[in-house]
Amino acid sequence: MSKQRIIETNEGIQGELTIEIFDRFARIMRDKGWNNVENFYKAGITKGNVLEIGPGPGYIGLEWLKQSTNSKLTGCEISCDMIKMAEKNAKEYGFEARTNYIEGNAMQMPLQDETFDAAFSNGSLHEWEDPIRVFNEIYRVLKPGGLYCITDMRRDVNPVIKWSIYLSTKPKEIRPGFLTSLNASYTVTEIRNLLNKSELKNASASKEFFGLCISGKK
Ligand SMILES: C[S@@+](CC[C@H](N)C(=O)[O-])C[C@H]1O[C@@H](n2cnc3c(N)ncnc32)[C@H](O)[C@@H]1O
Fold this sequence. Notes:
Layout: H1 16-32, H2 37-42, E1 49-53, H3 59-66, E2 72-77, H4 80-93, E3 99-103, E4 116-122, H5 131-141, E5 142-153, H6 159-168, H7 175-184, H8 188-196, E6 204-207, E7 211-217
Parallel strand pairs: 1-2, 1-4, 2-3, 4-5
Antiparallel strand pairs: 5-7, 6-7
The chain binds S-adenosylmethionine (SAM).
Residues 12-13, 26, 53-56, 60, 76-79, 82, 105-107, 122-124, 127-128 line the site of S-adenosylmethionine (SAM).
């Protein structure tokens, strides 16, 4: 049995200092190639008009775009400070014309029905106040046949892996936040129960080495 979930705030990451520290952390992860982009490809998300939920500083989607020429990415992000960082990073990649970051809560996205060919998200699920509402929103904004893939950490990760990641996480200032996020994350069983109550009830949810991966087709 894994420990009970301890929820995080639902305000996303705010404030320039935290944003700057998170950006440094996400950049290090990007440089190590730890980005889950491979999972999005495995789920069949290879091109098109794509939505990213909770892009943070943007590296995940920007790395995906690097391999998907001709594709466009819209990021729906709750924190306006993160949006500024993502826009700065998109410029560094030379992808301003292929990216559009909008401020919005994933539980009620300011986006039209049936707009996107696919949707993905990494490391944001554990922060969503009501994941069922977000799953339903993903269903709403996807075109028929649209693909989705959501990756995140998993609370019941092996403790040896948990602590070795904790100790190797840089910059050091991010470590307390890593534990808070891990404690707020779900197990695959919990996620399957939530998916079953949503429009994404046909999704598959799998246990990964460190995290979990949800994928499917509308
Ligand atoms: C831990 S960060 C992960 C950022 C990025 N996806 C990555 O993997 O590096 C989670 C991001 O999700 C955003 N977020 C949290 N709740 C959200 C919500 N309800 N709607 C939109 N974005 C949200 C946060 O502001 C933050 O930028």
